[in-house]
Here is the input.
Amino acid sequence: MEKPKKQLTDKQTAFLEHLLGDARGNVRLAMDMAGYAKTTAVQEVVGNLRGHCQIKPPLSGRGPRSRFSSMTERSPFRYFKTSPEIIRLAVMMYIRFPLSLRNVEDLLHERGIDISHETVRFWWNRFGPLMAAEIKQKRIQQLRAYSKWKWHVDEVFVKINGERHYLWRAVDAEGEVLESVVTKRRNKDAALKMLKTLMKRYGRAERIVTDRLRSYGAALRELGCPAKQETGRWLNNRAENSHQPFRRKERAMQRFRQMRSLQKFASVHASVFNHFNQDRSHIHRAHFKQSRTAALIEWRGLLTG
Here is the structure.
């Protein structure tokens, strides 16, 4: 025997119309939340709104997870009692400046914000990669437009639990950090991995400045562009100087204990450094202040959906 269809009351119909009118693109979600996705009254409401909302009828046979299919992206701060402004401030202070976790805790305490240094650690691990990814996504198209002129590639030694690892970094002619890759060895395969990552994301550069490490030449020969390599005593100073902010932060963090944590922090630190780096010695003071203010405003708007 067929079960009788559940009918909506006038109050439920009015509420659903209001909900659908506000949600526009999330009509299917609203119907699933109300629990009346297959009733006649709902189909009438959907038919009336379909003209100006361009609503597709709900798919039959969908499971209970269909209510999340057309939801807009939720805020990553939704389960945190602390204000998002405070979280952004703590993450920025820890990543941007050579401060330890306890330094950030003390500085926030002076502003009347009482948190633990372990809270700062959790915040940066949770939100740092998300913020860095959003920054990089916004800047990647601009970098593809003008970063092909010249790349500077260099590697530095990093100790992890007493074992030597290598951090390969590439910057463009303006000092913008393009990529950071951590490897256990300094050979042709490691150099090839770095260069392939660069070319896949940014295209092929006209010139690639490196030191005299033979691994670069072998990797470039395999890629078919050995003529683009340039080596010289001071030609790669741009890459050498770009290591300094990372080295200062490394000392404040008392080094790293895992290769994965080094890769994670190097990538996040590079994105945040690019966002706030204004190269103040080469521009007018008024222009520098405007750029610094714009960068701070953009940082405060991260992860807002």
